[in-house]
Amino acid sequence: MTIDPDFVSILICPESNVKLKIADSALVDSINKKIEDGQIMTRNGDTLTQKVDALLITVDDRRAFQVHDNIPNLLMDDSFELAE
User: What are the residue boundaries of the structural domains of the chain, listed by start?
Assistant: First the structure.
């Protein structure tokens, strides 16, 4: 299953109103490795333990939102910042 790009085209970050895009597989793989190593913390301060199926990221590459079972989680507390 993949996320419909037309659906993603209408999504924005709920806080900054910046448009979202689908992260490429290299970034998803990199984030999943960091999740495995306990290196990803959500805005809420929780360490992620479940690998993501996909990510939606802001077009400015600052924030990531988890996607599990083709369902994006756009809750700010569950999002995380991307390293610069």
Answer: 5-81
Residues 28-83 have pLDDT tens digits of 999 999 999 999 999 999 999 999 999 999 999 999 999 999 999 999 999 999 97
* pTM of the entire predicted model: 0.94
DSSP letters for the chain: ----HHHHTT-B-TTT--BEEEPPHHHHHHHHHHHHTT--B-TTSPBP-SPPSEEEEETTS-EEEEEETTEE---GGG-EEPP-
Rounded (5°) CA angle 66-35-49:
80
Note whether 21 and 56 are within 8 A (CB): yes
